[in-house]
Amino acid sequence: MQPKALEPTESVLLALMDSVREWQSVLDQTLSDAGLDYPKWILLRAIRQEEFVRHEPYLGQMLISATHSESLLGDLQADGWIAYDPAGQPLIPVDAEPKVDRVWKGLKALHSVSVAAFSTEERTALTASLRRMKATLHDHSMRLGRQAERRVEPTH
Q1: Buried b vs exposed e over 3-36: b needs ≥16 C-beta within 10 Å?
Q2: Residue 59 phi, psi dihedral angles, 5° rounding
Q3: Sign of the torsion formed by the C-alpha atoms of 47, 49, 55 and 57
Q4: Which of 5, 17, 38, 136 is the most exposed place for a label (fewest CB within 10 A)?
């Protein structure tokens, strides 16, 4: 006998959808706080794992055309995430490695939560926790922004 598919209104499915939305939101916030977005992160990760070939489309977790990757490489270089070797291939410079590692560990922790087997009640608690985490990240980003504004004195 074939198991019955979950109905879109069942509490398990609703809890899963809610936690996935919150997880995605925290992922986006985490990347944003680091000055990245998902395509930049995917490209940076591919560079780190030596899977990226310049001037060719990247066919990893998401398709990134050669043209788009060149634009992303420019942004990543301007923000200090990458440099180029003498042959023109992107690499992560030594001084950027700790920054990349920090984002890597954060996203790895988020991913481990996303694949864990939770009950409906645990998913609901996780969603609440993710919402608090997102609010904390947002507050932290706002404080850092205000601190940066204070450091820049307006010239008259």
Answers
A1: eeeeeeeeeeebbbebbeebbebbbebbbeebeb
A2: -110, 35
A3: negative
A4: 5
* Tokens 């055309």 found at: 65
Residue type, 70: E
What DSSP designation does 80 have?
Answer: T
Between CA 53 and CA 47 the distance in angstroms is 8
Q: How large is the average pLDDT for residues 33-48?
A: 94
- Give per-residue pLDDT as tens, 88-132: 999 999 999 999 999 999 888 877 766 667 676 776 777 777 777
SS3 84: strand
| Structural contact between residues 22 and 130, judged by C-beta atoms closer than 8 angstroms | yes
Report the alpha-carbon distance of residue 6 to residue 111 in Å, rounded.
24
Using CA atoms, how far apart are residues 42 and 67, in angstroms rounded to an integer? 15
Backbone angles phi, psi at 152, to 5 degrees: -90, 105
Is pTM beyond 0.70 here?
A: no
Locate 133 and state its tokens: 């985490």
